[in-house]
Structure formats: C-alpha cells, structure tokens
Amino acid sequence: MASEYLEHKLALLPGLPGCYLMKNINSQIIYVGKAKNLKNRVRSYFKSSHTGKTAQLVSEIVDFETIITSTDKEAFLLEITLIQKHQPYFNIKLKRGTGYPYIKITKERDPQILLVSDIRKDGAYYFGPYPNVYAAEETIHFIQKVYPLRRCTGFQGRPCLYYHMGQCLGACFKEVPEKDYERQITKIKSFLNGNVGHAEKELTTRMEQAAATMEFERAADLRDQIRYIEATVEKQKIISNDSTPRDIFNFYLDKGWLSIQVFFIRQARLMKREKRLFPIVNTAEEEIASFIVQFYQRKNTVLPREILVPASIDGEVIEELLHVPVRTPKRGTKRDLLEMAGKNARLVLEEKFRLLELDESKTTGAMKEITDALGIKPGHKIEAFDHSHIQGADLVSAMVVFVDGQPNKKLYRKYKLRTVDHADETASTIEVIRRRYTRLLKEHAAMPDLILMDGGDIQMNAVKDVLENELDLHIPVAGMVKNDHHKTADLLFGEDDHHIHLDPKSQGFYLVQRVQDEVHRFAITFHRQVHSKHSLGSRLDRIPGVGPKTRNKLLKKFGSMKKISDASLDDLQALGISKTVAQTIRLSLQADPAEVKSPRTPTNL
C-alpha cells in the first residue's frame, strides 16, 4: 500500500519511456529500472501483489525519481549507467573484469606472441579469454615451437638460444623479412581460430622428412607435438564446422530467482561456460537483456561475432547497443546448444533452492530478526565499532561491516586516534564516529542501516550525540552487551538504553555474536600491529644519533631489529646515515642481543 505522498507522485507520472530510481528511508537508491511507459511500470509496484525480492523492495520504498528519455534505447543505456554509478542493492551487479588471460600477437616490426591480462587498442591481435591459464601457456609454448616469431629482446649481434632451438626467426642478429612474419602470423591466427588440421598435416610432413633423413630426435619431437594437438586442442568435441566466435545466453526463472547460463563457442568448440544466479525484481526478459549489455561492458571482455538468445528476448535493442548480430536459432546445432544452456540453467537453480532455505535463515533472515527485535525498518548493512589500547597507549579503533549477515572485509576500516592520548571511551567513540560519517557525507556514500557499538550506554550516547546533534543523521544505534563470562548477552537500544533480549538459539543472536567477535578481533589485531611498530621505534630512539627521521628510514628499509643488526655499514650509510651513527647503531644492537629478538614490524600500516 503506497503512502499518500507516493500516491500523489504516482498520479503525476508520464506515459513516456525513461528510468526510475527507487529510494529507501535514508534516501539511498536501492533499485534502478527502465520502462517504455513510466506511468504503467512504476504504478505496478504499488498496485499489484508481489513475492520474494520484489515484495522486499516495495516494503523499503519511501520515495522515487524518474528520468524521461526520448526512446527505449536511450532508457536502456541510461539504466546501465545509473546501475554502474549507484550500485543499487536490488539490481543485478557484475564484476568489472573477467580475470581471464588472452593470447596476444604484438604489432611490431619484429612481432612476438604473449600471454596478457588486459586488452589495449594497440593494433595487436587478441585471442581468448582462456579460463585455464595453464592451457593458455601450453598453447603459446606449442605455437612458439611450430610457428616461431621473435622470442629474444631484439638485435644483439649474435643468435640467441631460442634461434638455435628453432623458436625464434633471428631478429637477434639479422633483419627478418616482414613476409616471413606475415606468413607465420597467418598460420597462428588460423590455428587459434580452430583450424588445427592444417597444423597437424604440416607437422606430419615435417616428421616424415626428418625420419627420411635419419634426424630421429627431430622426428620424435615433431611426433610429440602432433600428440599434443590431439591431446589438448582436439580433446574438446567439435560442435560445428562454423568457426565463428559466438556466445549463447539462456535462462530459467522460478520463485523470483533468475538462473543464467552463458556458453562461449570458440574455434568451433564449447570452450567455456559461466553461470549466474540472481533474485530479481523485473521480468526475466528485461533483466537478462540488462545483464547481457553489462556483461560486455566489463574490462577485458571481447565481443563475439554473434550472440544467440531465446526468442522471448528483444534482440534488436541489444544489437543496436553492442553492434553485434543477436539472433535466435530455429534449428540445428545452434538451437540444440541454446536448449542445452536452458537445461543447465534450470539444473543450477534447482540445486540452489535446496541450499537457499538453509542459508537465508543465517543471513537475511538473521538480519530481519535483529531489525524486528529493535522495531526499526528492514535493512541490510551493519557497521560495528570497537576500541583497543594497552594502559592508555597506542589507542586505535576499528570498524567491520556486515551486509545481509555476512562480513564484507573490503569495507573494513582502521583508525589511529588523533585527538585522544589516554583511555577515554567517550572521546575515542566521538572521534571515530565523527571521522567515519563526516567522510560518508562528503562522499555522498550510502549510510548503514544499523550501527553496533561494542560497549554499553556510554559509547551509545556518544554515537547518538555526534550523529544527531553534529551531523543531523538518524541512524539506529545499539550496544552489544556481554555477560560476566565475556560472552554476547543482548542489545541495548532506544532513548532509555533498555535491554533487547534475543533468543540465544536464534540466528539473530548468532549474528550479533559474530559481529561482536569479529570487530573485537579486528581491533585487537590492528592494535598489536601498531604497538609492535612503536616498540621497535622506541628501542631505536634510545640509540645516540638516531632521531625520528633516521628511525623511520631504518624501519621502512629493514623491518626488524634483527635485519638492522645484520646490515653492513655500507647498507646503513646508503640510507644517508653518517658513518659514525651507523657504527653506533651496529654496536648498540650487537651489545644487547635482546634488542635483536623483537618481532618483525608489520609493513601494512
């Protein structure tokens, strides 16, 4: 049921193409969609019944925006741009890179064949990606033996070792005709495009010639190369006589979950498969169309010559955006492959459902238990804080982040306290909370749905004071309380800091326990690193002639007392330290062996 505010906005929606941005109570964009008719599409969220992820989305919408475009194609492009910019929680999001290597033939006077991790607009030839790095390396080794280009660094006035091995055309000591390179490159391209029959025939001829001239070792080497082709290149079944590089997409939808299968056909073979599972909000056809466009915008992704999709997908818009033919096969091998991708998509989803029931209670279900117990809006992201010190020295704070019940270590943060020089929980909390959320405001970044403090009402009140009175933020804050045995007991929450008792056997309780243990572990680990570094530094400070600059140089270069002690006078003087001070450092450390046994200084602070 839409609020009165939303009802007024729904009545003003135009019947035009465009994009819509759904927002939650914190004004965060949680979903971006496109529509040919904004009025009909956006109203459908509030005027129809929903289940699964769509129902969860609607329950969190408190506002929305629309952007009108001239055509559906423009709306499609804008949708992809907005998804990549805002990374909404309810949208399908893809990683930016494939992580797979490519085989590259460089564009040079004396070209070479390389294995690279990215594609550049440098005029070179690229083949791949290859999901198996070892297989790609072995393929290059084979090509270098059969169709050599240049393996040396260039002209050096004498033949290189590779030339003597028959794996270099000799750019190291002579000018190789460009026609020789062109001839080899033509053969390499043909081989990498799947035409291995010619290579096998040529190798067989050379093997027979070597045997006829009694070059038996050479003949045996050529025989092994032929077997390599049969064992690796020919191992995968040829699925057609058409060597056109093509990608095949199919899907299966059930219970609000979309399973996608992508088959990569290269060299007339099924070279690789990718599978993806997403809970979705829109129709399957619109989600997979958006998926395909995002799929080819990732780093290191080479467009195929052809894309095959089911008949229900609008291929015209995808074809206009990617400039690649998008077709639906009606018969033959291509149709069989498309159907096989669909069957695989269904199989993967059915297997996933058997695990989802177990996982959901531990992740999103646990998060919902906590928000329900606190009486706050449903949320996904928790940020938790803890402090650590030893008798007021080396004060640090740490923050961990849990999204839907799972830790996201990429979002963890460490803080060396700047304004606090003694054990003061209130001052420490005020500084770290002020730094964290002032920065989020400046960056216009998403706020958490809940803040947890490892402590009692003192820390909670300090957090609320900074958030509400300084930053005008209204984020729910709760304290994680421990019992006499230092185990998680319950939560403190509300204006009167009352106890919220969670069932000790519930997933919500287990989640609070995991958050509390993790933030404590992270804070303690960081504190040990800082304390270890300062301990080393204080020992160096006691050596005459060693000031802060010299100490930092030594720690950065050597990392431990043992390595500093073992360093020669020349090594120490190379840092700009005078000979007299360098001798003093060595004598001081060698005179007190206990100094040398200090732990290694961490280098990641």
From TrEMBL:
<comment type="function">
    <text>The UvrABC repair system catalyzes the recognition and processing of DNA lesions. UvrC both incises the 5' and 3' sides of the lesion. The N-terminal half is responsible for the 3' incision and the C-terminal half is responsible for the 5' incision.</text>
</comment>
<comment type="similarity">
    <text>Belongs to the UvrC family.</text>
</comment>
<dbReference type="InterPro" id="IPR000305">
    <property type="entry name" value="GIY-YIG_endonuc"/>
</dbReference>
<dbReference type="InterPro" id="IPR004791">
    <property type="entry name" value="UvrC"/>
</dbReference>
<dbReference type="InterPro" id="IPR001943">
    <property type="entry name" value="UVR_dom"/>
</dbReference>
<dbReference type="Pfam" id="PF22920">
    <property type="entry name" value="UvrC_RNaseH"/>
</dbReference>
<feature type="domain" description="UvrC family homology region profile">
    <location>
        <begin position="248"/>
        <end position="467"/>
    </location>
</feature>
<dbReference type="Pfam" id="PF02151">
    <property type="entry name" value="UVR"/>
</dbReference>
<comment type="subunit">
    <text>Interacts with UvrB in an incision complex.</text>
</comment>
<dbReference type="Pfam" id="PF08459">
    <property type="entry name" value="UvrC_RNaseH_dom"/>
</dbReference>
<dbReference type="GO" id="GO:0009380">
    <property type="term" value="C:excinuclease repair complex"/>
</dbReference>
<dbReference type="InterPro" id="IPR001162">
    <property type="entry name" value="UvrC_RNase_H_dom"/>
</dbReference>
<dbReference type="Pfam" id="PF14520">
    <property type="entry name" value="HHH_5"/>
</dbReference>
<feature type="domain" description="UVR">
    <location>
        <begin position="197"/>
        <end position="232"/>
    </location>
</feature>
<dbReference type="InterPro" id="IPR038476">
    <property type="entry name" value="UvrC_RNase_H_dom_sf"/>
</dbReference>
<dbReference type="InterPro" id="IPR035901">
    <property type="entry name" value="GIY-YIG_endonuc_sf"/>
</dbReference>
<dbReference type="GO" id="GO:0005737">
    <property type="term" value="C:cytoplasm"/>
</dbReference>
<dbReference type="GO" id="GO:0009381">
    <property type="term" value="F:excinuclease ABC activity"/>
</dbReference>
<dbReference type="GO" id="GO:0003677">
    <property type="term" value="F:DNA binding"/>
</dbReference>
<dbReference type="GO" id="GO:0006289">
    <property type="term" value="P:nucleotide-excision repair"/>
</dbReference>
<keyword id="KW-0234">DNA repair</keyword>
<dbReference type="InterPro" id="IPR036876">
    <property type="entry name" value="UVR_dom_sf"/>
</dbReference>
<keyword id="KW-0742">SOS response</keyword>
<dbReference type="Pfam" id="PF01541">
    <property type="entry name" value="GIY-YIG"/>
</dbReference>
<protein>
    <recommendedName>
        <fullName>UvrABC system protein C</fullName>
    </recommendedName>
</protein>
<feature type="domain" description="GIY-YIG">
    <location>
        <begin position="15"/>
        <end position="92"/>
    </location>
</feature>
<keyword id="KW-0228">DNA excision</keyword>
<dbReference type="GO" id="GO:0009432">
    <property type="term" value="P:SOS response"/>
</dbReference>
<dbReference type="InterPro" id="IPR050066">
    <property type="entry name" value="UvrABC_protein_C"/>
</dbReference>
<keyword id="KW-0963">Cytoplasm</keyword>
<dbReference type="InterPro" id="IPR010994">
    <property type="entry name" value="RuvA_2-like"/>
</dbReference>
<keyword id="KW-0267">Excision nuclease</keyword>
<keyword id="KW-0227">DNA damage</keyword>
<dbReference type="InterPro" id="IPR047296">
    <property type="entry name" value="GIY-YIG_UvrC_Cho"/>
</dbReference>
